Amino acid sequence: MSLRKRRAARSSLWLVVRRRDAGFTLIEVLVAVAVLAIAMAAVIGAMARQASNAGYLKQKTVAMWVAHNRLAELQLQTEPPDTGRSDGKAEMSGIEWRWDMAIVKTQDSRLLRVDIEVRSPTQTEKEGALAQVTGFLAQ
What we know:
This protein is an alpha+beta fold. It has a single domain (26-138), classed as Pantoate--beta-alanine Ligase, Chain: A,domain 2 (2-Layer Sandwich). It has two helices and four strands, in the order ααββββ. It has helices at 3-21, 26-76; strands spanning 84-92, 95-105, 111-119, 131-138. The longest helix has 51 residues, at 26-76.
């Protein structure tokens, strides 16, 4: 092989090696960015759902406290409450909650059943209650 051919072969080999060492191609970079964008969208979506669930669980917990407080107030009364339905409002955690209560007689004449439902101020009857508690009171 002549000297010229050897030099040409070396320089073309050098160019191939240089091109590979030069970095990523545009297509490789675009694919990597697309993969990262899809992964980030999934992470952000999961974080948004987690934040939404945390807010809902906080509301549900506070509503349950309101229902339990109302039941405890009834248990602390010296006279048993009248049977029937009643409703009212209670403030807790900076929110004014609405509660509905039904008191009915049971088969045991010494017990009353109390059903309490608690809703946030923005909830409608169709949406259902955030918290429901059933308890029994001795007469």
